[in-house]
Specification:
This protein is mainly α. It has helices at about 1-5, 10-30, 35-60, 70-90, 95-120, 125-140, 150-155, 175-190, 195-205, 205-210, 215-240, 255-265, 275-295, 300-315, 320, 325-330, and strands at about 160-165, 170-175. About 75% of the residues lie in helices and about 5% in strands.
Length: about 325
């Protein structure tokens, strides 16, 4: 599929954009509110957290790893940061909250990187373990109790753009700006720095990268640390959006985000992927989910789509190993 897209010079990103536009036309004709300004702004507001997750996860996938603990890490960050700010820092502020969230999230990501690097364990096994470890510790120490009394700076919404619409107004909020910053930063690191190119090279051929002197620890530390940082920021934004901290609010987001990033061109074998593709993958799934809701289709259909995407991704990433050598050579020419 990717070979076909490259021959036609469309690219994965172009194909995704075309699908999104085609689906938008169909939904505009079959629903009354899909193309309304309110609905489009709501899509961006609601997907801000998922896009922040996605641009962190795409770095890990490009580096040849996989992480399914990021959503739980975001929940841990929410509780740790809110507890520290409320109990010891008098409530804090936006700059302090963001800095603490980035720090705690990065530390959780580095914990994953340390286990993967030091003990040479497959990344998905490590992150399944830390998923359960983080969640178990969170529920043990919090008793599953939500935090409703959050500081005022986190509670009140911050409008960025407010435009008149058919039903009142359409508003774009602060998390969309934070999402934009994280997208641009991740894109710059991957596409405009030598270290970003090193991450791609390591994901494509770890052994060749080691022989050329690439520090494996630096790659692992940055990839999982960056995802942890993104998870921390996303967790704070999610608490801001829902105006509370709930221990299991983000649990279950792992597979849709993974499916979106894979849909955006990243492979489970490493070496491929882009920030734009990850963003478009999230938006495509968001459009599908929003369209199903507007059409009154059961939400289980969306879960089926996510599962199908992951199965196709795993199948295609292992297809080369199933083909005879002669056929395999022709396929990858």
């Amino acid at each position: 599929m990717r070979n076909l897209l490259s021959r036609t010079r469309i690219g994965t990103e172009g194909a995704l954009l075309g699908i999104i536009l085609a689906l938008s036309v169909v939904l505009a004709l079959t629903t009354d509110s899909f193309l309304s300004l309110q609905n489009l702004f709501d899509l961006l507001n609601n997907q801000s957290v998922n896009i922040i997750f996605a641009v962190g996860l795409v770095v890990v996938l490009i580096a040849g790893g996989i992480d399914i603990s990021f959503a739980v890490a975001a929940s841990v960050v929410q509780y740790v940061v809110m507890t520290v700010l409320i109990d010891t820092l008098g409530g804090g502020s936006w700059p302090l909250g963001i800095l603490l969230s980035m720090l705690v999230g990065t530390l959780l990501g580095l914990f994953n990187a340390l286990l993967i690097h030091r003990f040479r364990i497959v990344s998905i096994i490590v992150t399944i373990g830390t998923f359960n470890l983080f969640f178990g510790l969170l529920m043990y120490f919090t008793g599953g109790v939500s935090i409703y009394d959050i500081p005022d700076w986190l509670y009140y919404s911050i409008p960025l753009l407010d435009l008149p619409a058919e039903r009142g107004s359409a508003t774009l909020y602060f998390p969309a700006a934070v999402m934009t910053v994280m997208v641009v930063l991740t894109w710059f690191i991957l596409a405009r720095t030598g270290f970003g190119r090193t991450i791609y090279g390591f994901g494509s051929s770890p052994e060749a990268a080691r022989r050329s002197g690439v520090s494996v620890w630096k790659i692992h530390a940055f990839a999982y640390g960056w995802l942890g940082l993104c998870a921390g920021v996303a967790g704070l934004m999610q608490a801001h959006i829902v105006q509370e901290v709930v221990p299991n609010a983000l649990i279950g987001q792992e597979l849709p985000i993974l499916a979106a990033v894979v849909l955006g061109g990243a492979t489970l074998g490493g070496g491929r992927g882009s920030v734009l593709g990850a963003v478009l993958g999230v938006l495509l799934l968001a459009v599908v989910q929003n369209g199903l809701n507007l059409l009154g289709v059961t939400p289980y259909a969306f879960r089926m789509i996510v599962g199908l995407i992951i199965l196709i991704a795993i199948t295609t990433s292992n297809l080369g190993n199933l083909l005879p050598r002669s056929t395999r050579a022709k396929t990858y020419e």
